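Input record (one chain):
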Amino acid sequence: MNTTALSGIAYLPPYGGAWHNCTRNIETIFNKSFSVKLVDNSTPITPGFGDYAKGNSSLNRIYDIGFVVSLKVMDLNHTELKDPKDQLLNVIYYCNTSEYSVTQCDSQFIGLPFQNQTGLQWCLSIKNPYNNSQKANVSFDSDETSTNTNIINISANGVAHNLNNKHLLLVLLILFQMLWEYL
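The corresponding structure, as predicted from the sequence alone:
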């Protein structure tokens, strides 16, 4: 990681902004896990803990809470590419956040490059898809049970906690109404 802190409070900028922490030294994160949990917005951020990317305020977004967690593997050997997105080799979403945002995510690191693959950069990215800023406690822990299979295209589920169950409740209500009509 580009910081020596094992945990800290990260600022999640609004409008699709993100916090990320990157490393080229894959050994520093082998057999580790991470935990991300939303905290109160009055909590002070940890200086020097990760980097921030500003969001795009021209996009119409809603006010809500939650985040999206992903792992990004980038090839730094091809610096001649004009668009940094062209250097992106793979994106893996943790805790099923490719489908919905969560308020907490705990997972092992999965999909890391092999240790002998030089020129690859690994980034943990936490994106805020909403129009309000948020803060999250991010911590990195040793995980003695992790086997780290190094499979880059593996799906990483982890444990997700989502306090935004409004949509699920609406779907259940509609299903119950449909069942009631058939009885």
